[in-house]
């Protein structure tokens, strides 16, 4: 079952994020999730194997860019390692695509780290085409920068 994420899902979403290599505490996730759940242009969905058993999540966001038309970007998608290969990721991606269509968006985008080689065929199988390779840069702002 796919449903909208709820504040009570924060602890499980944090655990799944850590599984993917993104360390986050349940409290940090709760704060981020609370913010995203109030944003009209963002959608966070979870997949449950049975009621109360969250096995995956996806975050889609409407992107408004100067250089192109509005689009939806999959900003995060993770499925419990024990549930991969069972269509959970596909159902999560499809649910975000349906949400995007409902907003009048005509294009989806996703970025996948070159090191996550297992995800590349997954997205291609869903109909996503590789359009470029890029470098990602970050700069810290604030204390400790």
Short description:
The chain is α+β, with helices and mostly antiparallel strands and 145 residues long. The chain contains four helices and five strands.
Number of helices: 4
Shape: globular
What is the strand tally? 5
Radius of gyration: 15 Å
What does it look like?
This protein is α+β, with helices and mostly antiparallel strands. It contains four helices and five strands. The protein has helices at residues 10-19, 26-36, 88-102, 119-125, and strands spanning 2-4, 42-50, 53-63, 71-79, 108-110. Strands 1-2-3-4-5 form a five-stranded mixed sheet, sandwiched between helices. A hairpin with a 2-residue loop joins strand 2 (42-50) and strand 3. Helix 1 crosses helix 2. The chain is globular. The termini are far apart.
Chart the SSEs and their pairings.
Layout: E1 2-4, H1 10-19, H2 26-36, E2 42-50, E3 53-63, E4 71-79, H3 88-102, E5 108-110, H4 119-125
Notable traits:
5 strands, five-stranded mixed beta sheet, 145 residues, single chain, globular, 4 helices
């Amino acid at each position: 079952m796919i449903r909208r994420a709820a504040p009570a899902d924060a602890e499980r979403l944090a655990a799944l994020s850590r599984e993917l290599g993104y360390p986050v505490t349940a409290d940090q996730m709760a704060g981020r999730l609370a913010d995203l759940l109030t944003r009209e242009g963002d959608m966070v969905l979870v997949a449950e194997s049975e009621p109360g058993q969250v096995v995956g999540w996806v975050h889609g966001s409407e992107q408004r860019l100067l250089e192109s038309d509005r689009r939806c970007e999959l900003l995060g998608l993770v499925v419990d390692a024990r549930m991969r290969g069972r269509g959970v990721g596909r159902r999560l991606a499809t649910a975000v695509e349906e949400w995007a269509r409902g907003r009048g968006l005509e294009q989806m985008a996703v970025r996948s780290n070159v090191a996550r080689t297992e995800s590349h065929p997954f997205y291609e199988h869903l109909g996503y085409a590789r359009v470029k390779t890029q470098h990602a840069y970050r700069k810290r702002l604030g204390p400790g920068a």
